[in-house]
From TrEMBL:
Compartmental location: Golgi apparatus membrane
UniProt GO cellular component terms: Golgi membrane
Assigned protein family: Belongs to the PC-esterase family. TBL subfamily.
Protein name per Swiss-Prot or TrEMBL: Uncharacterized protein
Domain annotation Trichome birefringence-like N-terminal: ranges: 80-133
Gene Ontology molecular function, alphabetical: xylan O-acetyltransferase activity
Organism classification: Eukaryota, Viridiplantae, Streptophyta, Embryophyta, Tracheophyta
The keyword Lipid metabolism belongs to this UniProt entry's keyword annotation: no
Length: 413
């Protein structure tokens, strides 16, 4: 019995990127000299045995605590170690999890079926981690767990999509849809800075803050060259950061706006302290901004209360021959064709790994890499040019939320 509990609790621990690894490198000390080694050997052996015994006692009591009522049934793992982001999509006729046309918070632009898409297979895929199963999202159960809590998404439109997806997933467990509303009565729009949906029956807030760079964008310093129209302050968090601090769950993303077109070509240059960094590469700037974010989490966030997540770059599928269109498929691609690599994703993982407080990387880059069937394409609203970056809802962002919540629930939340 005990061993069964143990292996289930272990399986429940999703591998994360962080674990209190200090930023400063450790100083190596030579603690024994070879000639004296034989003399101390018995002592060393006794110490090792002691450590093993104490370690296993501590280990089992820790996992016994964790397993107390907090396991998600179904997160079953044969190998006792499961990276939920490594896996594949399997067809599952029980998906999708909701109907966007019946969810007032799914924006029309993401509702591909309402915008004329005829094939529906793209909605019927479930993410299957290689070594374990993610339990199906149970809206009633998760609403109960989220009672009195505040879930905050921060980032660009990909965060807005995940925010909408979560609200629609949760709404399937709400008996009176009118008891769920945007707190300011606002409509969803692309540039709005704040949207907050309140689930009255559960005293739950699910919020979105638009902050595409996470750091502050403002006027350039005086005497800047005339081509510099604005400056991105790599050492300063976006001024609305105060609003994020007391959340119970904080999910960030950034990446899609770190392009030449949106930055340099639009007159936006980088700045650190008082000086412009005219020649700084975009990836170096991204890394600096992310380190600013990491220090902010370390100093401002009480990670005893707040669970912090950072989602990696979500792959897009623009055609290589014509970067204004995409060849959307009706099925996921058989292989990732290089879309599973992203320099931004690597930087995110590296920065989070070096943080002094716990934060989790939602490593979604490779799981989206094969989903050339799941983008908006030309089923947008109003009909615009092709969109090979955003995702249809229901769709891929629902899987991000399933992973997010299976993580939270197995983490003893
Ligand atoms: C993200 O997931 C992919 C696929 O499993 C893996 O190759 C990659 O190493 C992961 N990245 C991190 C930082 O864990
Ligand atoms: C989604 O809901 C709309 C409106 O109720 C309905 O017309 C449509 O058939 C539903 N779609 C699916 C796939 O169930
Ligand atoms: C969802 O969770 C609720 C409450 O825990 C439970 O009663 C219900 O059976 C679950 N539904 C499914 C489909 O598992
Ligand atoms: C968080 O919890 C730890 C261990 O219980 C405690 O030492 C620390 O003071 C707490 N931090 C805050 C900010 O409450
Ligand atoms: C939309 O794209 C599909 C292929 O992805 C194409 O068959 C269809 O003609 C396009 N529709 C419009 C209105 O451009």
């Amino acid at each position: 019995m005990v061993s069964a509990i143990l292996s289930r609790s272990q399986s429940a621990r999703i591998r994360t990127q962080s674990f209190n690894s200090p930023r400063a490198s450790l100083v190596k000390r030579k603690w024994w000299a070879p000639e004296s080694f034989l003399n101390v050997l018995p002592v060393v052996l006794i110490l090792i045995a002691l450590v093993l015994v104490l370690g296993s006692v501590a280990y089992s009591s820790y996992f016994r605590d964790l397993s107390r009522g907090n396991l998600v049934p179904g997160l079953v793992d044969r190998d006792e170690k499961c990276d939920v982001f490594e896996g594949s999509w399997v067809r599952d006729g029980n998906y999708p999890l909701y109907n966007s046309s019946e969810c007032p918070f799914a924006e029309r632009g993401f509702n591909c079926l309402a915008n004329g898409r005829k094939d529906t297979e793209y909605q019927k895929w479930r993410w299957k981690p290689k070594r374990c199963d993610v339990p199906r999202f149970n809206a009633s159960e998760i609403l109960e767990r989220l009672r009195d809590k505040r879930v905050v998404f921060v980032g660009d439109s990909m965060s807005r999509t995940q925010w909408e997806s979560l609200i629609c997933m949760l709404m399937t467990g709400v008996s009176d849809p009118n008891s769920v509303y945007e707190v300011n009565g606002n409509q969803i729009s692309k540039t709005i800075r704040f949207l907050g949906v309140y689930f009255q029956a559960f005293n739950l807030r699910v919020e979105f803050f638009r902050s595409v760079y996470l750091v502050q964008q403002g006027l350039p310093p005086k005497h800047a060259p005339s081509r510099v129209k604005s400056a991105l302050r790599l050492d300063k968090m976006d001024e609305i950061n105060r609003k994020w601090v007391d959340a119970d769950v904080l999910i960030f993303n950034s990446g899609h706006w770190w392009t030449r077109t949106k930055l340099i070509d639009s007159g936006c240059y980088f700045q650190a302290a008082q000086s412009l960094k005219l020649g700084l590469s975009i990836t170096s700037a991204f890394r600096m901004a992310l380190n600013t974010w990491a220090s902010w989490v370390e100093t401002r966030i009480n990670t005893n209360k707040t669970h912090v997540f950072f989602r990696t770059y979500e792959p897009s599928h623009w055609s290589e021959s014509n970067p204004k269109v995409c060849e959307l498929t009706e099925q996921p691609m058989p292989d990732a064709q290089g879309n599973d690599r992203s320099e931004f994703a690597d930087i995110i993982s590296e920065v989070v790994r070096n943080m002094r407080v716990p934060a989790v990387v939602l490593n979604v880059t490779s799981m989206g890499a094969v989903r050339s069937d799941a983008h908006i394409g030309n089923w947008s609203h109003p009909v615009a040019s092709f969109d090979c970056s955003h995702w249809c809802l229901p769709g891929v962002p629902d899987a991000w939320n399933e992973l997010l919540f299976s993580y939270l629930l197995t983490d003893g939340w």
